[in-house]
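Dear Dr. H.,

I hope your travels went smoothly. While you were away I took the liberty of generating a structure for the chain from your last submission, since the lab meeting agenda had it listed for discussion. I wanted you to have the full record in hand beforehand rather than looking at slides cold. The sequence, exactly as received, is reproduced here:
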Amino acid sequence: LASSRNIPALKLLKQVGYDKGYGFANSLGMGFSKDEYVESGPLGSVSNSNPYKMASAYSAFARNGNYVEGHTVIKVTDSFGKLLYSEPQGKQVMKESTAKQITSMLQEVVDKEYGTIYNQLDKKGNQVAIKTGTTNYSKNEANFGYNLVPDSWAVGYTKDYTIAVWQGYNERTKGLGYGTESKLAVQGFEIILNQLGVKDTKF
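The corresponding predicted structure, in token form, is as follows:
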């Protein structure tokens, strides 16, 4: 995960089976249909994801395996203090130990020399678990441009916040340069993290 290697993800999906692998993703709110259970799914070939879904899914790792759909309202009370609405409690979708293992691996993305964004993120003293990635053009789309990618992602979390950043164009034919341009999602992640004002949080 830290080095963004694709083959291990594909091998793992084959080992656990498509039903179990995609079933787990669906327990995190991804909403894959049966016809989207394809081998290339772990590489981002399925187009039903969006930042909202990704942030909700990754928050389950930060919450030690408890999945809660993304929301912005924590509670609503009336003028007398009576509780009218409270945030959903969520559902345990994986073992706490599994969530902690994923968190540990995703911390290596930014903390270890072999990580894809080692020393490229100002964490403000926070422990951050993050995954970056790009999708690719198919063989039929290869004429869109050499060394371009359709879009890029940066999805990660601290103990208290989950952030998902997607970067791309409305028109898929407009690609991103694989170098500096495709790294802007990481910069966006850093900007949001800094704007939240959280510092020195630990998992």
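Two observations you may find useful: The beta strands are 66-67, 75-77, 83-86, 91-92, 129-134, 148-149, 151-157, 162-168, 176-177. The first strand starts at residue 66 and ends at 67.

With kind regards,
E. W.
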